[in-house]
Backbone:
């Protein structure tokens, strides 16, 4: 796989992971917020019941009791918390509710009317509840407080809200002991629960609602959604990976074809040495090197060989010749086929004598090589070394002229241009 496509897969993977994390966090927060809202609805319903109970007691039940007292149908000092104390009635209702919840294996609801001036010690506010009560008194516009807590490995939503401020009807039992019914004072004494004023927030409703059922449902929905989302992402990643691999394979085929076309453009199709196009390019690129040496050689009487033995034999001789020459050159030397039976060598030599030794050795190797025909094969060569800032054309002409002289002066030899 190409580096570009590997980077693409890495980028896409990181993008998927980032998206997975962000969406996962969002879904988690949404499902748990939904669970919290559902639990809060239960709390709101419960609190509405409390508010309705308080209103009924203050606005309907107590006026009836007081009217009966005024009409002397009920003695004036009558007091029974079962019908006149909101806190007593509310606590009793929730105690009965928790008994029913126990019978149905449902976690109990913690309920308390918490105050810092309790008539019954059961309603005495804890330190936290006392702080909340004071907070509500100082901030009458704040109507509720909630938080998620954990107790005994169970999750709860804790909720607090202030009860309605004291009304005139509350003062009969909560202002001073001398105004309170005698039976109330006898039951609770003349200190506890008194000293209240109209408009004061006497207590808070303190609730702890079990939250585990809603959390379990929220987690179930979260894992279900994330499972489906994970499966979708794996499928998406698989599809993308499939198409990237397919694209990579096509790119590989194109690259291989381009390499092949590049080889065809740079090399001779018969001998696989560099062609005239490559020669012209390399000569131009290396011309500024003062040690650049150009050797041009061709096969003597090659036309006669083709006419006598056929073109296939001629091709075989060209292939064998290039193989022989290449094995006798250094790795940095380059061999080119620049014409039918004409070749060139670009090499670097410190002096012309070194070039002459190379060419002489090549001529000898060729003359002693068996080309599988009865006719003796040999080559002629021309040598030219860069001097006086020759241009590529100048250097080539010098080597070509030297080759021409070698042909004129007997062949199977070299001349220096």
Residues:
């Amino acid at each position: 796989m190409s580096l570009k496509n590997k980077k693409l897969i890495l980028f896409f993977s990181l993008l998927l992971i980032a998206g997975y994390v962000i969406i996962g966090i969002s879904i988690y927060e949404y499902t748990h917020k939904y669970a919290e809202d559902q639990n809060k609805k239960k709390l709101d319903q419960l609190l509405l019941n409390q508010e309705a109970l308080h209103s009924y007691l203050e606005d309907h039940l107590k006026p009836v009791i007081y009217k009966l007292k005024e009409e002397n149908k009920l003695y004036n000092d009558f007091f029974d918390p079962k019908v006149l104390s909101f806190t007593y009635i509310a606590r009793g209702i929730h105690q009965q509710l928790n008994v029913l919840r126990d019978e149905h294996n449902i976690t109990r609801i913690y309920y308390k009317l918490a105050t810092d001036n309790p008539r019954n010690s059961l309603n005495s506010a804890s330190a936290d509840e006392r702080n909340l009560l004071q907070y509500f008194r100082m901030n009458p516009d704040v109507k509720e407080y909630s938080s998620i807590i954990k107790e005994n490995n169970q999750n709860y939503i804790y909720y607090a809200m202030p009860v309605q401020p004291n009304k005139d009807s509350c003062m009969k039992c909560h202002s001073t002991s001398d105004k309170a019914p005698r039976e109330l004072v006898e039951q609770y004494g003349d200190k506890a629960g008194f000293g209240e004023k109209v408009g004061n927030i006497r207590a808070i409703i303190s609730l702890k609602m079990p939250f585990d059922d809603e959390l379990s449902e929220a987690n179930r929905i979260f894992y279900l959604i994330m499972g489906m989302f994970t499966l979708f992402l794996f499928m998406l990643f698989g599809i993308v990976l499939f198409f990237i691999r397919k694209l990579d394979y096509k790119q590989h085929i194109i690259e291989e074809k381009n390499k092949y076309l590049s080889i065809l453009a740079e090399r001779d199709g018969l001998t696989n040495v560099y062609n005239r196009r490559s020669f012209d390019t390399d000569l131009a690129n290396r011309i500024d090197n003062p040690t650049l040496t150009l050797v041009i050689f061709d096969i003597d009487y090659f036309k006669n060989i083709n006419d006598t033995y056929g073109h296939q034999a001629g091709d075989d001789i060209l292939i064998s010749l290039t193989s022989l020459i290449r094995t006798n050159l250094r790795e940095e030397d380059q061999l080119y086929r620049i014409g039918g039976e004409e070749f060139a060598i670009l090499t670097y030599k410190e002096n012309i004598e070194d070039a002459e030794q190379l060419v002489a050795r090549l001529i000898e190797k060729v003359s002693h090589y068996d080309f599988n025909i009865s006719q003796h094969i040999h080559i002629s060569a021309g040598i030219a070394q860069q001097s006086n800032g020759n241009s590529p054309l100048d250097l080539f002409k010098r080597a070509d002229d030297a080759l021409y002289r070698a042909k004129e002066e007997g062949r199977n030899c070299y001349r220096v241009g």
The two ends are 52 Å apart (CA to CA). The beta strands are 110-114, 145-151, 154-162, 204-210, 292-299, 334-337, 342-348, 379-385, 414-416. The first helix runs from residue 3 to 70. The mean pLDDT is 88.
